């Protein structure tokens, strides 16, 4: 009988096979030989110089761009106006050649390998011991991307995405971290405490606006806060009012994306589209404070109190608002509530819906021939009527473009008032709903037709009413209806 099996610890394989091993070479002060004077050599020379190498370039006929680059980097780059010879490779670490002639390429590789150099013949994979990768540079943080030559365009697309989510200041934070490393060891003797510090540090690097010369002081304070935190209550979080833009997730700013990626809680309203919300950090709690169906929205004081309470619990709260938070977004109340409670609060602007509508229409809201002034007004007061205190004379200015937010229900009344104050009945009007979204609609009409309700049929969609001669320059084919006849011009 076979003996019983004994328990045996197994380990899952940790890493799938790698096409190439990514390593980071320290080339500071090391000799590198570059053979060739054409365009591909220019970028390699720049790259190697940026990495601190001493680059000897051998080219009988260098491109003017290469000559200019060498002139700009006299310490790093030396240009020899002749063909390379075997002995030029002596003492070098790397050999790079732009050599289309197969026999010459083979000769370069043989000479380099005999001397133990790693070699790269540009665009000739069999003659490459290493490859240059696509780089995201936030030195000392450097990210290299390789597709092993399969699809360089894919590498570039990945780079663009990474560039978009990494703040430009990451590099300076990296340098600051290097300077602060020894101090962290002094302040936090245990590994666990040091880890706690570095985790908080990472959070700060992604959201702080601090300039390089302010960063050391900032992380000194951070360290002091962590040391002072005896565990008798969470540290205060913060509230960031973030503009979600008009709906199309592509119109989010890079800053807004970063905030969404580092949120603990996302408090959002009705105008925030699912596509934008989707971009929030997976683990973040999501709290909807807008209208549900035809129900009422949450009370503003409850929303403000919620933001404050969450931040006092130590949460990083992203208050996500449609369009730009500073335009009809009740931002004032929320900022005041945070300040009154001692909660740090910041604003990240967004693309307002008027800008999105203008872009889709192909118009400039301040076309120099038609408008000297752009006015954003609200079309409803707290009871849903046209606000009593709105300056109708200013709105009737024929040299202005007026964008009415929340104005669908009162637009007809407004149009009548404007005509009574002398604005021409034929003044162009566009009623734009769902700007930047898949179901975007524009109705072109006139002030006179608007006064009779023309173009206002789209229910339950966020709608702007744009009034003014500048809208006449709209690129899209819109028919100007006679009084009540309308044509819907749907968006691209
Ligand atoms: C409370 S205000 C918020 C405005 C927002 N902060 C902005 O900058 O666009 C809501 C009004 O904005 C307008 N609005 C917001 N998003 C819109 C969109 N995608 N298309 C058209 N109008 C929009 C509508 O007039 C809506 O009633």
Automatic annotation (TrEMBL):
It catalyses: precorrin-2 + NAD(+) = sirohydrochlorin + NADH + 2 H(+). Residues 239-450 form the Tetrapyrrole methylase domain. Its EC number is 1.3.1.76, 2.1.1.107, 4.99.1.4. The active site is at 269 (proton acceptor), 291 (proton donor). Pathway: Porphyrin-containing compound metabolism; siroheme biosynthesis; precorrin-2 from uroporphyrinogen III: step 1/1; Porphyrin-containing compound metabolism; siroheme biosynthesis; sirohydrochlorin from precorrin-2: step 1/1. One of its GO terms (molecular function) is sirohydrochlorin ferrochelatase activity. CDD domains: SUMT (cd11642). Residues 169-214 form the Sirohaem synthase dimerisation domain. It comes from the Bacteria. PROSITE patterns: SUMT_1. Pfam families: CysG_dimeriser, NAD_binding_7, TP_methylase. GO terms for biological process: cobalamin biosynthetic process; methylation; siroheme biosynthetic process. Keywords: Cobalamin biosynthesis, Lyase, Methyltransferase, Multifunctional enzyme, NAD, Oxidoreductase, Porphyrin biosynthesis, S-adenosyl-L-methionine, Transferase. NCBIfam families: cobA_cysG_Cterm (TIGR01469), cysG_Nterm (TIGR01470), PRK06136.1 (NF004790), PRK10637.1 (NF007922). Belongs to the precorrin methyltransferase family. This is Precorrin-2 oxidase @ Sirohydrochlorin ferrochelatase activity of CysG / Uroporphyrinogen-III methyltransferase. It comes from uncultured Microvirga sp.
